[in-house]
Amino acid sequence: xxxxxxxxxxxxxxxxxxxxxxxxxxxxxxxxxxxxxxxxxxxxxxxxxxxxxxxxxxxxxxxxxxxxxxxxxxxxxxxxxxxxxxxxxxxxxxxxxxxxxxxxxxxxxxxxxxxxxxxxxxxxxxxxxxxxxxxxxxxxxxxxxxxxxxxxxxxxxxxxxxxxxxxxxxxxxxxxxxxxxxxxxxxxxxxxxxxxxxxxxxxxxxxxxxxxxxxxxxxxxxxxxxxxxxxxxxxxxxxxxxxxxxxxxxxxxxxxxxxxxxxxxxxxxxxxxxxxxxxxxxxxxxxxxxxxxxxxxxxxxxxxxxxxxxxxxxxxxxxxxxxxxxxxxxxxxxxxx
Length: 337
Known about the structure:
Layout: H1 2-8, E1 24-28, H2 31-41, E2 45-46, E3 52-57, E4 69-74, H3 86-92, E5 101-108, H4 112-115, H5 119-122, E6 131-142, E7 148-151, E8 155-165, H6 176-190, E9 200-203, E10 207-210, E11 214-226, E12 229-239, H7 249-260, H8 269-290, H9 292-301, E13 309-313, E14 319-323, E15 326-327, E16 330-331
Parallel strand pairs: 1-4, 3-4, 5-6
Antiparallel strand pairs: 1-5, 2-3, 6-7, 6-8, 8-12, 9-10, 10-11, 11-12, 13-14, 15-16
Protein name: Biotin--protein ligase
Domain BPL/LPL catalytic: 87-288
Keywords: Ligase
């Protein structure tokens, strides 16, 4: 019945052909690090909860990629074999730790499964080197509540590994990590000179919206604890340059240019990922030092419902009005009788 209704509305319900899964390519900040990783992982299989990684030294035969086995090529020329602009990404990356090791694949089930549950791999990466997994397309992208979706080419999608002491400000308030990540995505766009006019904002708890009605991105965070350390994987997807299924940020920018006769350039995936990771690291560092209050102020400034007036009525004679205020992500209203 649903299929019939959708067809009446002009929406095609024919099954499409999913793109084939592709190998992953490991890239690192410098050759010395790359050689170290080749020595550590070359020819080794790291078994994960849902996906095993098979590290293939360059010049060896690459096995077929499946949903359960992902070949990871460790080679000096990897950056030349992928569509991702590694040079541009590194030019924009300004972090101390996060994002210095990048795993890229054109098509994957979900970037989240590469790191989530693969402790064998994650534990063998030095603490001062953050891993990020980036994909061109996802065929089983993960969302909250077990939701799964297709992420087409042009969507900015990645999973980022972070870790911090359990006995720290963020370690004691881990749910804030999802809010940090979603705020970072919005700041990566609006803090870029000239792009503060782009109408993107946050909807609680961690969705990214265009205007007040169209969702264009979201965040998922999974975590585990070992000893006194919390290990978390931040998964993010944002419609950056894909026109479907709703609207993309670059389409929003194009429309703004037409209406205001401006010349803002489209955003690239490489720069926007790097700027997002930069901001995640900055926000985490600030949260660890200064706690919740300064972060809430920043979140509130990008909140979708900031300064929205709520009208509430007890009966036909009595009503009250109040401007929303964000206090630890709950609306607090003063009732007027």
